Amino acid sequence: MASWGEASQSRLIGKRITRLSGKDKVTGKAKYTYDINRPGMLYARILRSDVAHANVIDIDLSRAEELPGVKAVLPIIEVGKKLRYQGQEIAAVAAETDDIAKDALRLIFVDLEELPFVVTEEDALAEGAPQIRDWVGNKSNPGTNEKGEVEIGFNEAAVTVEAKYHTPVQTHVCLETHGNVAEWTDDQNLTVWASTQAVFGVRDDLAGRFELPANQVRVITEHMGGGFGSKFGAGVEGRTAVQLAKITGQPVKLMLTRRAEHLVAGNRPSMTQHVKAGASRDGRLIAYDMRGYGTGGISSGAGFQAPYVYSVDNIRTERFNVTINAGNQRAMRAPGHPQGAFAMDSLMDELAEKLGMNPLEFRRINDPSEVRQAQYTLGAQEIGWHRRNTIPGSGTGVKKHGIGVGSGLWGGGGGRGTQARVTINADGTVEAVTGTQDIGTGIRTAIAIIVAEEFGLTPTDIAVKVGDSGPGLRSGGSGGSQTTASVAPVIKTAAEAAIQKLFEHVAPLLQAPVDDLRVGNGTIYVASDRTKTVTWHQATGLLGMESISEGGNWDQELRQHGVAGTQFAEVEVDTETGNVQVIKIVAVQDCGLAINRLTTESQINGGVIMGLGQTLLEERIMDPLTGRMLNANLEDYKVPGTYEIPEIKSIVFDTHRKVTGVGEPPCIPTLGAIANAVYNAIGVRIRELPITPDKVLTALAQKKHKEVSNG
Amino acid sequence: MDKFSYVNATSLKQVTSLLSDSGWGEVMLIAGGTDLLSELKEYIETPKTLINLKTLPEMEGISSDAAGIKIGALTTIADIAMHPTIQHHYTVLAQAATSVATPQIRNVGTIGGNLCQRPRCWYYRDETVNCIKKGGDLCYAVDGLSKYHAILGGDPVYIVHPSDIAPALIALNASMKITGPEGEKTMKVEEFFTLPSDNPFRENVLQPNEIVVEIQIPNTKPNTKSLYLKAREKGAPDFALASVAGVFEMAGRTCQSANIVLGGVAPKPWRSTEAENVLTGKMVDKAVSMKAGEEAVQKARPLNDNEYKVTLTQNLISRAVMMAVS
Question: Cβ separation of B306 and A694 shorter than 8 Å?
Fold first, then answer.
């Protein structure tokens, strides 16, 4: 049976190994799509709707076309159609310089008949709200789920909690905005440099739309500046770049502006839950009744996990989607989970308090995961759980400390569909080629580690070629934390096959059977007689004019689905300014076999930072008055900076030696952990994210008012 | 941005003569450009000519004499933040400068530009929103979203003045030298700023043909304690939700005089004579400091989303006072 072997036998796998592309990235040598410039390249820009809802009466492109330097103007929306959200594409321009393209956009005249709009969930659900999709109402048919008898559960419950939890829309904030450079090498062959999570997905998307054979479209993503689920297709901007390149016969670069990135390039839907839950005197969660909704903007898909992580006997849930005049949602790092985790972990603490029970004990009773049970013990130790306020808010002084816990789960088991080749050349060089892409997660380094482990070499000896559909070795998109678990087994089996072939060449020289050969540190030797050895170069020299090139298979014995995580947060709340400073996060994350412990820790760090941003800072602010997003920039849309990042203790929690992806799960438990820590610090619960100073001060003022009126 | 011609300044006389040909917005001055450039990119301003002031080195630098210190308008925020004399004797100014934006912006942004910067209001900064400041009829913050807007002095425009430097200078009784076609004049920094009720379009009294040349700060007494506190949502870069510039002359725990100027809460740096009056001549303790905070916000008129700023301002003043006596 295929296996990754014992930890004690691994030279490289599971160790902390520096990212191969790290030096290129920090020195600026790494080329992202943004950095691609082609001879004769034009710059393209898209004119977008300023208004949330309007009929398009007329579009006049003529003055833009006449501007010197403009090479093409392309209408995107047709006259007579409706614009349904701010940022929606109207037309595009390709010009000799980016500045000319910008000027040209201002020469496109659009006659619009503005229509009533709704940009908040509340407005969309209000009586008499304008219906913004012609074929269906603003509120979708609810999806329901029932298990057991929720009323019986409540009858048996010793305590119940009723609460409303809300998380706003969060945008992806990819540091490299969406975009492409498109170049037709002739009228039947297209090359596209794309900032994407799926080179083959974009290839097939473009081949279909431009009616090209798939093997005549090449998509390249050498380095990628963040996707988080928002970069799977070519998108309107990708198709527009290709179309403009076709019209002009010149390469075209089209990257989204930061503003457009916020408006149209995807977001995490909002969540509003009205939830009632009950627990028995001995701390069992026995009833859960939830009615909730979210908005995915102009599209549907605003799902969230409820209940989450913890077992409940009796469940009744109903949730629906609210359509508003705003850019549509896309998958975002663990879709549906962080929102659900915030609400569930807040609820768990509220129930535990009513029971007079330690919130960690309450979790232990209701958490079915053995892995997380062990993680609770480790995490509690690391954060110093005993230091928390037994009575929330009881700390003295202006700056109050608190400690909280949250949990999460994810899949990440990978799947079939990756092809790879591992090649050994006569000069001793090694290539590993596959059609996956390194979107910043470090799969390039993981591949090098796996091959180097099999060959007795070091990771830098392996030339890893990913992010290019050109070789025709397909792999799936990098989403769902599936990349490593999809790619690693194929690379491993390909490397195993290749080294077997090399052993066959070496065996006669060493006068030993093939199955008695092993790799060592840059050598091949005979296991039963270690005096018999050849260097790697001597061995590959035997290949003469040949190379060894082997494919691999996805072997599901090499991977496993399902991970558990828990996080503990310590915060300091300034009760005079309402400022929440996270002091420390302990993130305990299971991911099975960590191919590279260092990049796995980086994944966890990144997830924690993103979770922290969602908890304390981030919110798409839609203005009911103008229908516009008021913070489509990085000034008022606030993401964590240096001052916000706490000490992060990332613990790769070893469970088994099968590969599982961990890109998404570390951003999940952070929300509940911080929110519960804030409560533990100040004794007032904030049920609406982000937990900003205005909310903290308002909550503290209400608490004070209550205390005063209660005497 | 629209096309413009770019002129390197050769003398102040040349600058004022170029300016005097036009009204607001036709000819504009650029120094660090950290604010202006974003206004150009967003088409909030569309000047025909930009005059680059960085070619006038005489407008840059910090000097001191018997009366106090002088800071040329082109002096960068970073130079002010790191100047030893300012750090020791005008602490409030050094702290305010340090709290501005990011190191990159402080390295190019100038004190003159900081005082003349335009509001950050999200309606004002949206080209397509025609608010009062741009000749329209509405201040959108009144019925729209107003989390970052004014609680004091707002009517009819509820922007807040974004400068950290200005409250510090006013608290230090600083003056400024302004040059125009008729020559030089000097005025208190406090008198430089105006309220929307006087002029909804501008935030100060500078005329289109005038230029801020120099800041002058008188000596502080040896018993002076000064400090700047800035509350923000994010460590950096972020503008103030509310800030307090405090300059106190102390005799032991007795406050002989107090200058308290608020940032981030009003359309101009807001001098709180109410808070100052509470403190002057008093033995300062927690109760007095809180009273100062309470008095400062007596006239606050919050909008829908910014009532928290009342509490925040109150708390910051109290904190600043207590820090001054500790």
Answer: yes
Which residue from B minimizes the CA distance to A99?
B1
State whether residue A186 sits within 8 Å of chain B by CB: no
Answer whether residue A711 shows pLDDT above 80: no
pLDDT for B110-145, tens place per residue?
Answer: 999 999 999 999 999 999 999 999 999 999 999 999
Domain boundaries, chain B: 58-116+160-218, 224-325
- At A219, the amino acid letter reads V
A-interface mutation test, from B233, B306, B322, most A Cβ less than 10 A away: B233
Contacts of B238 in chain A (CB under 8 A): 638
Whether B79 has a pLDDT exceeding 90, the answer reads yes
- Chain B nearest-CA distance from A244, in A, is 24
Report how far apart the first and last C-alpha atoms of chain B are (Å, whole number). Answer: 51
Contact status, residue A326 vs residue A86, Cβ threshold 8 Å: yes
Share of chain B above pLDDT 90, in %: 96
B101: which chain A residues are within 8 Å (Cβ-Cβ)? none
Which residues of A are less than 8 Å from B129 in CB distance?
Answer: 626, 628
Structure tokens at A599: 């990049």
Query: Are B278 and B262 contacting, i.e. CB atoms less than 8 angstroms apart?
Result: no
- B326 confidence band (pLDDT: 50, 70, 90): confident
Residue pair B169/B93 in contact by the 8 Å Cβ criterion: yes
Q: Write the class of the CATH domain B58-116+160-218.
A: alpha beta
**What ipTM was reported for this prediction?**
0.97
CB contact under 8 A, B123 and A626: yes
Contact between chains at B312 and A642 (C-beta distance less than 8 A)? no
Chain A positions in Cβ-Cβ contact with residue B134 (cut-off 8 Å):
none
Tell me the per-residue pLDDT of B5-29, one tens digit each, with 9 for 90 and over: 999 999 999 999 999 877 899 999 9
Q: Which CATH class, in words, describes the domain spanning A336-343+357-410+561-709?
A: alpha beta
Is A693 in contact with B233 (Cβ distance < 8 A)? yes
CATH of domain A7-30+414-558: 3.30.365.10
Which superfamily is assigned to A35-115+178-255 in CATH? Aldehyde oxidase/xanthine dehydrogenase, a/b hammerhead (3.90.1170.50)
Q: Do B144 and A623 touch (CB under 8 A)?
A: yes
* pLDDT tens digit sequence for B281-322: 999 999 999 999 999 999 999 999 999 999 999 999 999 999
Whether A215 has its CB under 8 Å from any CB of chain B: the answer is: no
Q: What is the rounded (10 degree) CA torsion for A574, A575, A578, A580?
A: 40
CATH 3.90.1170.50: which residues of chain A? 35-115+178-255
Distance from CA of A129 to the nearest CA of B (A): 18
Q: Which CATH fold would you assign to the domain B224-325?
A: Enolase-like; domain 1 (3.30.390)
Please indicate whether, in this complex, the C-beta atoms of B148 and A50 are within 8 angstroms of each other. no
Residue span(s) of chain A under CATH 3.30.365.10 come to 7-30+414-558, 336-343+357-410+561-709
pLDDT grade, residue A52 (50/70/90)?
very high
In whole numbers, what is the pLDDT of chain A averaged over residues? 97
Cβ contact A495:A552 at 8 Å: yes
| Distance (Å) from the alpha carbon of B61 to chain A's nearest alpha carbon | 30
Judged by CB atoms closer than 8 Å, whether chains meet at A643 and B233 is answered as no
Q: Nearest 5 degrees, angle CA B259-CA B262-CA B266?
A: 140
Distance CA A411, CA A429 (A): 36
pTM of model > 0.90? yes
- Tokens 């910043």 correspond to A440
Give the count of Cβ contacts less than 8 A between chain A and B.
79
Task: Decide: residue A697, CB within 10 A, 0-12 exposed, 13-18 middle, 19+ buried.
Answer: buried
C-alpha–C-alpha distance, residues B230 and B241, integer Å: 8
Residues of B in contact with A576 (CB under 8 A): 312, 315-316, 318-319
